[in-house]
Amino acid sequence: MIQSELPQPLIDDAVRAALLEDLGRAGDVTSQATLPQDATAEAVIRARKPGIVAGIPLAASAFRQIGDGLTFQPAKADGDRLAPGDMIATIAGPALNLLSAERVALNFLTHLSGIATATGAFAQAIAHTKAKVTCTRKTLPGLRAVQKYAVRMGGGSNHRFGLDDAILIKDNHIAVAGGVVEALRAAKEFAGHLLAIEIEVDTLDQFALILDLPVAQRPHVVMLDNMGPEMLARGVAMNEAAPGAPVVLEASGGITLETIASVAESGVDYISSGWLTSSAPSLDLGLDIDIR
Predict the structure, then answer these.
(1) Active-site hit among 48, 76, 81, 170
(2) Which of 78, 86, 200, 250 is catalytic?
(3) N or C: which end of the chain has fewer CB within 10 A?
(4) Residue 170 falls in the annotated catalytic set
(5) pLDDT tens readout for residues 157-194
(6) What is the pLDDT of residue 59?
(7) pTM of the predicted protein model
(8) pLDDT over 70 percentage in the chain
């Protein structure tokens, strides 16, 4: 098995679900119909465009789970940079099994490598600042853990994984709770000492209300949502001027490769982007096969 920071059962479960979806009720009828049962083949997965690879352990799992006899030999590791033509892995063994797992393996590889590549571009654009790029919960159902893994492989960091691992008070929570202060007070009363609290604000007036609170009543993180670089810089200055240790500041909303540098230069600590996991384009990779 390929070493990965992802737990192997998590990898295998995600891949198994994808294989079952693709194989349907009768398996790969095209390969069954056209290939001799004893046919063997060798294949090479190569990059067609530059990028950062992610998903090799999932591809390996696809070729392992499809049946006996296939060998998967990686030439790259997740997080490695790719140039066009670079070999990522070779696969050899029964041709029917190889072709039956090909699409699932490539789906994971191209999708996750696309996320890693986009994250890497964001991270490189803000490397001259202290800010770090992070993802959100805007993930495809069932793929959150592996998509967030791809963000890490691209040099980003992870926001919360679900509704249960941190309190994130958003505008609708504030509206129902009756205001920023009221929502924060209720969250502080609810949370234990290990549960972090973040609150989203749309205006600097809301942020001022938070900074007016005693330090012990402030959240761990404030998300400055949909603010331009100038307004973000004002928020950073307010935070630094407030008594007590400054809160961690996160910028969010409409982040693109063209705007992320100016957002980071405002002085915020984190920049979150849902686009990385929901909309980053796949990286163009190909599997070429030679019949023996």
Answers:
(1) 170
(2) 200
(3) C
(4) yes
(5) 999 999 999 999 999 999 999 999 999 999 999 998 99
(6) 98
(7) 0.95
(8) 98
To the nearest 10°, report the CA torsion of 268, 257, 137, 141: -170
Query: Candidates 3.90.1170.20, 1.10.1740.10, 1.50.10.20, 2.40.37.10; correct CATH number of 8-123+280-291?
Result: 3.90.1170.20
290 band by pLDDT with thresholds 50, 70 and 90: confident
Identify whether 138 is a catalytic site residue. yes
pLDDT, residue 96, reads 97
Has 103 been annotated as catalytic? yes
* Homologous superfamily, domain 166-273: Aldolase class I (3.20.20.70)
